[in-house]
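Fold sample X.
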Amino acid sequence: MRDRSVGHRAFSHAELSWLAYDWERVGDPDVAPRWPFKVFLPRSTEDVVRAVREAAAAGEKLIVRGSGHSSNRLVTGEGGTVLLTELMDRVEVDERASTCTMQAGARLLDVDQRLARHGFGLKVVGDHGDITAGGFASVGGISPASHRFGLFVDTVTQLEYVDHAGKVHRCGPGDEAFRRVLAGLGRYGVITELTVELQRIDKQRTVLRNDRVLTGTFADFLARAEELVCNPDPALYARAFWVDLGKAGYGQISRYHLARKRPDRVLRSRLAAGYQRLIGAAVTNLPPAAGAIAKYAGVAAMVLPPIYPTVERVERFADDLADATVGGPTRMFIAIAPAEAAADVARGMLEACGAAREAGAVGPVALYLKPIRSPYLSGDRDDVRHAEITVTATVDPATMTESVLSTVVERIDDVALAHRAFRYLHTRTSEDPQRRRWLDPNARYGSDEEGAEARWWA
């Protein structure tokens, strides 16, 4: 296995043991492994067909795995059968059409670096360096550019997948199965190949100006974040970040616009990039205790992002500064809220963590917010906007028992349901199937779209 641990220094995706874990290990380093019995390593669509048919004939459930970034037991199974997309990484660029066709296992950081040689870049790319094309498409995919381009799945123009009977399907936006398979968590088959729209851009050299606003109270932060989410903005990238230390908190709202290229701004962007790399190096090389300090220094630095970064640094800002796999264990909870309810959902998610904080299970909490304008989420309604709200909580695994964690999850789900928000289902959510359907952004495109979900959407 090749090392795909560029962005996560404590865990190596190249180790065979990583197949027994998912992102749950970041929140509980001592979580029991779930070892698969059989692993398929396809390199082509034909190989996937063989694997699917062999698993079906043996009566085995096939688990599709990219880099293992889920924390909801979607990509692990004790004694299970895993299809690992590791070797499916072919990439083809069509400069005339401004599109890129890639296999499901292609790592999006690698894709973006290859596109840079052609003067292109992905419109939506995750901030984790190990995310694969198939994994990103199976959950939706969000970035600080999602207020312009939507989800990653909104940039997909063609899709190839293999259904559970081993039949190959190719479809586009006009086909019924297209949106059902996208963001479907692998329920409808194995995504094997994607074609996505590109933007012409030099991400490494394009300098942006961050028109940032700093906030010292959560109420002020929420008010400004709500304005960021609800009002159209010409910014190329946009996001908000809040650090809750319990008795104090600090936040910032960032809107990134194209900056005129001047030597002093280029120098400042390079110094900022060097600062990010320095923190990353500290996290890598310092002892665990000091590494935790470096991690928190990175989180603190997110409140004061550089004024003149490059596009590449903006897209990978969070992962470069605060590696979730080092220092204290962390739990991540993600909701996708209607724009007008974003502030209430954010407040409710922090309050859900606050109850666990009183029990000593939760320490400092970070809240990361990105505005979204997505045809997939809105059902092609131009007047509907959303916001991704990510809460990352530092936890004490000894105190954050399964019972406490389940209570936090259920409370966050209650908040989402009360405001008709979605949950990102690759993170921990309710075990109740009905509640999960209510929280699933894919529900309107799934097989039950004529049932209760459709009435709820209406």
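Fold sample Y, listed below.
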Amino acid sequence: MNEPAPALPVLERPWRSGQIGRALTICFPFSGDELGGSHMSVRGLLEQLDPERYRVLVVPEKPGGDISEFFARWRQIADPAPPRRSLVPGAPIGPVKALGALAGIPARRRFLKEQGVDIVHTNDGRSHAGWALASRLAGARLVWHHRGDPSARGLRFVAPLLADRILTVSRFSLPAQGSRAAQRAQVVHSPFDTSVTANRETMRARILERIAGPADALLCGYFGNFIERKRPFGFLDSIEALAGLVDRPVRGLLFGDPRNSEYGERLPRRVEGVRGNARAHMMGFCSPGHAWLAGCDVLLVPAAREPLGRTLVEAMLVGTPVVATRSGGNPEALEGDCGILCELDDSRAMARAVARLLADPDRCEAMCARARRTARARFSMGNHADRVSAVYSALAPGGSAAD
């Protein structure tokens, strides 16, 4: 078991009114203790930020947990008002849950003022709910990083009142045109290490050894939380359908933290019940994700209204072909013929697309090469950090942001 992170001293406030050019303290609060794509994106940002310009403070809900360990390189202080029960990642935050999050506002407000925090950068719905109002009351600027659906209530009703800037991961995620939120919003694609490489043959062999699979198995990957929006049951339906279309055993690999599930025992039972010449395996959370993606023959993305999936871009970078739904930010990520798009909730269409693609190796190879070039050009960590830094500068004293 990890030991709790020791308490750290109060930071000296980096600037006061009229003190321009001093380092800004940026606070990154995190709810729960389950790692996901937003944490990967934030770490990519932190690795690029200039320490002479920014003092980073990570605030995990659980000291010594997975998130705390993931950000171990950066200064940390535990959440001063952790909830008795964490909100479920990806689940809607209704009025009752929102009211529960308000209980910690006074302690978090005091914390932000004591630590001299200048900008709070929240990165998911749970952190927005717990820290947005506290940021406003503490006099800190708030960067609301929206990685979800544009219809989210928080984005429509809360962010326009409390956020100084709204960042979205795709055009799909932008608030409705003409809304108050849209006036403060801009697209900043998530950061990726575009130099990553992986030995596909080595990783394929590693997966086959782990699942005791046959050498000729067709390895289909699913990466993400087990929530309805991501459609893990649709993935299982697709691999069953695919097994009837190809002359190879099909293996469905579900990568993700089993704690991030809305299904309880329903999903493991469905995994065990996969029929025909297909089998499915719960692989757990495996890192680095791009390496495990490289071991898959194809990535299936059956998700509905996915803003911009990290694993989709990582698959592009390591040469794994992508078959995804024509929904959310998937078409934006794959534009330029960098993947195959299918209609939402049509598992047979997804299976047919995989079968056709793998039956045409020349087309598949050309598509993967095109996808790699596109991903390297569009999703670098440097580009992301430059754009976020510009937002921080605009929010600093003397910047161009409106009060």
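Sample Y note: Residues 1-20 have pLDDT under 50 and may be disordered.
Also: Residues 200-378 form a domain with the Rossmann fold fold (CATH 3.40.50.2000).
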